[in-house]
Design brief:
alpha/beta, TIM Barrel, nine-stranded mixed sheet, eight-stranded parallel sheet, 17 strands, binds (4S)-2,6-dioxohexahydropyrimidine-4-carboxylic acid
């Protein structure tokens, strides 16, 4: 009984429960789970005192390559991911150029193969000009799905009219990821975006989010197309989404679960500015309630780095977005330690959930035959989030100075150790994620 890698004596968090078990990985796949004292391996990890999670999948990041590499690139973004215990990322199409064609996509996948520390997939952007090509584009290697922006955020991708949204949803079959903010209402209220980011959620108000989510849910059900509504921020949307679980899955971000207005704007200024915005306590607790009731399928970071210089511009010229891929798991482990959710529920939201939503092939579970993707966690470790730990090119986080309990101490991707105790190991060897619908 030989394997490439044995992870011994850990506390495994899986669909079976939370139990002491060893895991053997051979040729990138899990080949045995249980009491494996008779096994030997080329490499062994003693995971005594550690929790062994299936690899964390962050299904919403912006890594800025190509074209905006002064903010981030695929090497630094995926390094930040691996440092935070993330084993695979799905990256968004608002790069430069926008990811709209087969060539744009093939170029991103080539870049990923060259320099990504984690496994990766990319979204193809939906735009008026590529609607007829979406059915073939969504089948290309490395494609997680289609991304549709209903409201303009950063960059020019926009599909805001019902008839155009309908065309996108009628062209193709895979799940479509949606940024739901209502563009006409955003434009009509733009005069409110003045003086200070405290006004950000006043401009991009609850009704902006609710209206767009309601519109896209209706069109999704009419067209029979599955959608995934990203970064939900209001309790009103959660009430709606609970009635559309046949066609719609739901994402929340750690920042919307952790920060609240107006405090975050008073403390962090434009560093707290993102779209859709961080809102008041009533919404934050509404998001938690929906999460606890199972309305939420996935936690994604919406990692959206901008430089400190860019963020220092006066509001509203300051760009929207904050980094988060590296802090996603530490923040959520801290919430587990504070009794907000169980370890198994977190595992469902960060591994099984993304796999279910996007039909990922062979990832998201600790089961025989699945990829040997593992996040090792020291659940008791108290650690301050410090700038010196961050690998993102932007060099800041809204959470620096915060002490969390629970810390990712190892990232293993297809049986290779990529991060251990805060150090990246070896060289980048990320591969495109595979999906059941396009095997
Ligand atoms: O705040 C945001 N920033 N929201 C988005 O939808 C885009 C993102 C970015 O790319 O910076």
């Amino acid at each position: 009984m030989r394997a490439d890698l044995l992870i011994k004596n850990g506390t495994v968090v899986s669909a079976r429960g939370i139990e002491q078990a060893d895991i053997a990985i051979e040729n990138e796949k899990i080949v045995a789970i249980g009491s494996l004292s008779s096994w030997s391996a080329s490499e062994e990890i003693d995971a005594s005192g550690l929790h062994v999670f299936p690899g964390v999948i962050d299904s919403q990041v912006h890594f800025r390559e190509p074209g905006l590499e002064h903010k981030e690139d695929l090497a630094t973004g995926t390094a930040a991911a691996a440092m935070g215990g993330v084993t695979a990322i799905f990256e968004m199409p608002n790069t430069k150029p926008l990811t709209l064609t087969a060539q744009d996509m093939a170029d991103k996948v080539r870049r990923g193969r060259e320099k990504a520390w984690t496994d990766f997939a990319f979204f193809i952007g939906a735009a008026a000009e590529n609607v007829p090509n979406l059915p073939s584009l969504e089948r290309q290697e490395g494609v997680a799905g289609v991304k549709l922006f209903m409201g303009s955020s950063t960059g020019s991708l926009l599909v805001d009219r019902d008839e155009d949204i309908r065309k996108v949803l009628e062209n193709g079959v895979r799940r479509v990821a949606i940024h739901a903010e209502d563009e006409p209402r955003l434009l009509a209220r733009q005069h409110l975006a003045v003086d200070t980011p405290v006004n950000h959620p006043v401009w991009r108000d609850v009704e902006c989010a609710r209206l767009a989510t309601e519109r896209v849910l209706r069109i999704a059900r009419e067209t029979g197309r599955r959608i995934h509504v990203l970064h939900i921020t209001t309790k009103e949307e959660m009430a709606l989404l609970a009635k559309y679980k046949d066609v719609a899955t739901v994402e929340v971000t750690p920042q919307h679960l952790t920060l609240q207005a107006p405090d975050c704007y008073e403390e962090l200024g434009s560093y707290a500015q993102m779209n859709p915005p961080i809102r008041e306590e009533a919404h934050r607790s509404g998001l938690w309630e929906a999460l606890q009731q199972g309305v939420v399928d996935v936690i994604g970071s919406d990692h959206a780095p901008h430089t400190k210089e860019e963020k220092a511009k006066p509001y509203p010229q300051s760009p929207s977005g904050m980094p988060g891929v590296q802090t996603l798991f530490p923040l959520m482990l801290d919430h587990c330690n504070n009794g907000k959710l169980s370890l198994q529920h977190l595992m469902d939201l960060t591994s099984a959930g993304p796999a279910r939503v996007y039909g990922i092939a062979g990832k998201g579970r600790l089961s025989l035959g699945f990829d040997g993707d593992i996040t090792l966690v020291d659940l008791k470790r108290k650690q301050k989030i410090e700038e010196s730990w961050l690998a993102s090119k932007c060099g800041w986080s809204p959470f620096t100075g915060k002490t969390v309990t629970g810390w990712p101490v190892g990232t293993i991707i297809r049986g290779r150790q990529v991060m251990r105790d805060g150090q990246l190991l070896g060289s980048s060897a990320g591969q495109p994620v595979r999906f059941q619908e396009t095997l």
